[in-house]
Amino acid sequence: MPAVPAEAPHDEAARVAALQELRVLDTLPERVYDDIVLLASQICGTPIGVVSLVDGERTWPKACCGLPASDTPRDLAFCAHAIIDPSAVLVVEDTEHDARFRDNPLVTGDPKIRFYAGAPIVTESGYALGTVCVVDTVPRVLGAAQLAALQSLARQTMALFDLRLRTLTLERHAREVERLSLLALDEQRRVADLLALVSESQRRLRLITDNIPALVAHIDNEERYRFLNGHIHRIFGTDVEGSLGRTMREVRGEKAYAQLAPHVAAALRGEPASFIYSDEVGGQTLHYQSNYIPDVDASGAVHGFFAMTFDVTQLQQTQQQLELLARVDTLTGLPNRRQFDERIEAALQRVRRLDQPMAVMFLDIDHFKDINDTLGHAGGDEVLCEVGRRLSACVRVTDLVARLAGDEFVVLLEGLAGDAELDRLAEKVVGCIRPAFRIGEAVMNVTTSVGVSACTPAETSAAEILARADRALYRAKKLGRDRFVIV
To answer: What is the pTM of this model?
Structure first.
């Protein structure tokens, strides 16, 4: 039996038009989208992650990890099914048990898909443009936290597409503004019989610039505003007519001018400038990107510069959110391996500088596979979360608890008073796991084995410290589990 193609959404023509408007299909790879698929893959524990866009006859990967990036015919694409309901994540836990997919060539042949989960990327108008999806070659079950994280990444992807669309619009307006500005300023230098044409060009320039979401200005060699569009009033509450003829320092104030001054000086030397700065507006800190284009005549003389400034606060916030997601384990809320690697390197530098001891505990949950088999993956996830909470509660506020992967946790200990304190903390960590766990209606005894690597100022490698703690963990398991070994 051939693969079962998905029905097209009822709003297919409008949906495809919204996708085409982004002008993102067949563009070059971009790091921010690569980060999203890497995060999706890490969060869901799958080898494959894709940002997939569903065009009229194909699906195209904007970003992909774990597979070569290539088009897929739409009648074979899982994502074509996922976009039918923009409000839900499509989860196929085992393709061999799903009539829609079991005979699909992507299941019976390479890449041999057995599991798929796709969160629709949805516009404000409700059009599903594609998905952020994860794929595995074995059956899999996702927890509620992983599904919520996948939907969050789909929303972040749509926010990036929205910013892309706004940027394309701004660039289009910017080119028109620059063309009309140059035309208007050149016409002012022409003979009197061109004054009527100048007036009309200025009228068109004002009409265009007053209706784009960016501040557009011309500043002369004395740093005085000679042209301003109406956006300055919308974002700063500044009167346009009252600002013309005044200096940038007078209009923007000392605090903002201090950030602008070096770039103003560069523009007046004939050097283009592009930069991001912050300003307080209405009690909020907003971020702006400014582009200064020198106004240079045919002889090379500089007559001031053009300025275009637009709000990039949302882009900055999106980048910060992605940076946070990249350093936190979404299941337990603990720091993840990336953050642990950064923190242990910084801790080693402090050990060398301050000549004080440090230690790393490497632990996992004894017989965790049996726990998963007994409680299921959702119950196993609850055990992992409870272990994370107990570890965080029992160590000192200066210590770092992180989840590396699966049931593996690490604790980074700095400022130790000596061997006795390390023994006490290791025993405390083992002991905090022993009280019975209540998972739903089940009560279960859980234990942990801990390997501890004590470090000195002579240590040079974080990898060796962790490897030594891993070997100590192995010894603790050989000795019967539910204990610690210090090396």
So the answer is: 0.48
Rg for the chain, CA atoms, rounded: 30
Taking Cα atoms as reference points, which of 213, 249, 250, 205 lies closest to residue 231?
A: 213
Q: Are 52 and 41 in contact (CB under 8 A)?
A: no
In this predicted model, what pLDDT tens digit does every residue of 189-213 receive, in sequence order? 884 555 456 456 667 766 676 667 7
Q: How far is CA 11 from the centre of its chain?
A: 30
Is the preceding omega at residue 111 within 30 degrees of 0, hence cis?
A: yes
Is the CA virtual torsion 335, 340, 341, 346 positive or negative? Answer: positive
Cα-based distances in Å from 206 to 139, 203, 236 = 60, 5, 19
Provide the residue type at 366 as one letter: D
Contacts of 284-289 with C-beta under 8 Å, sequence gap 24+, read 286/235, 286/311, 286/313, 287/311, 287/312, 287/313, 287/315, 287/316, 288/312
pLDDT tens-place string over residues 13-32 = 999 999 999 999 999 999 99
Show the DSSP H helices in 189-286 as ranges.
Answer: 195-209, 231-236, 240-243, 248-252, 254-268
- CA 429 centroid distance within chain: 34
Q: Which domains does the chain have, with CATH numbers?
A: 12-157 (3.30.450.40), 165-317 (3.30.450.20), 327-486 (3.30.70.270)
Separation CA 224–CA 39 (nearest Å)? 48
CB atoms within 10 A of CB 234: 12
Alpha carbons within 13 angstroms on the beta-carbon side of residue 86 total 19
Report the alpha-carbon distance of residue 32 to residue 40 in Å, rounded. Answer: 13
Half-sphere exposure of residue 191: CA atoms within 13 angstroms, side-chain side = 1
Phi-psi region of 61 (alpha: psi -120 to 50; beta: other; left: phi over 0): beta
Strand partners, 289: 276, 310
Euclidean distance between CA atoms 263 and 306, whole angstroms: 12
Q: Which two tokens stand for residue 240?
A: 């346009």
pLDDT in tens, 343-382: 999 999 888 888 788 899 999 999 999 999 999 999 999 9
Q: Which two tokens stand for residue 148?
A: 């919520």
SS3 category, 308: strand
- Please give the structure tokens belonging to residue 44: 């869901």
Nearest-angstrom CA–CA distance, 46 and 67: 12
Alpha helices in 23-143 (DSSP H): 31-44, 78-82, 105-108
